[in-house]
């Protein structure tokens, strides 16, 4: 059994396989996923797990070079994201964020019910 924070086998494999610049999206329960993009569905019920629970576990193992949030997220939600190690943060319209998800290695679906609680994480390198 692993010692590190991230115990979900599918998500752990995904993070381990990512290369520099690859995109991983962690989203709320209602985020639409483009056809053909892999989904790691962690949602159990409303609010479980929350987007920040999943984000913190992923950040324990993933080097993030930059990230993107929807402008519509608002200052409070954006501040909660920015309090973490997510690199330079770009803000974009929610529709642009959804369109960019077509390039994602995967979308992680959480049980989060907060509108616009979605984040795009672009992998960095550890050296």
Class from secondary-structure proportions: alpha/beta
Distance between the termini: 27 Å
Low-confidence stretches: none
What helical percentage do the residues reach? 25-40%
Counting DSSP E segments of at least 2 residues, the number of strands comes to 6
The average pLDDT value, as a whole number, equals 96
Annotated CATH topology: RbsD-like fold
Describe the sheet with the most strands: 6 strands, mixed
CATH architecture: 3-Layer(aba) Sandwich
SS strand fraction:
15-25%
Kindly provide the name of the CATH class.
Alpha Beta
Order of helices and strands: HEEHEHEHEE
Strand order of the largest sheet: 2-5-1-6-3-4
Radius of gyration: 13 Å
Described by the principal axes of the CA atoms, the overall outline is globular
Q: Could you name the CATH homologous superfamily?
A: RbsD-like domain
Helix segment tally: 4
- Count of discrete structural domains: 1
């Amino acid at each position: 059994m692993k010692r590190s924070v991230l115990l979900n086998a599918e998500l752990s494999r995904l993070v381990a396989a990512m290369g520099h610049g690859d995109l991983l999206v962690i989203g709320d329960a209602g985020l639409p996923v483009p056809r053909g993009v892999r989904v790691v569905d962690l949602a159990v019920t409303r609010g479980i797990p929350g987007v920040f629970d999943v984000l913190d576990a992923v950040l324990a193992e993933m080097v993030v070079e930059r990230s993107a949030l929807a402008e519509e997220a608002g200052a409070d939600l954006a501040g909660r994201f920015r309090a973490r190690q997510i690199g330079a943060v770009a803000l974009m319209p929610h529709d642009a964020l959804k369109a960019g998800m077509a390039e994602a290695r995967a979308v992680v679906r959480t049980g989060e019910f907060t509108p616009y609680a979605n984040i795009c994480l672009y992998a960095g390198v550890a050296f």
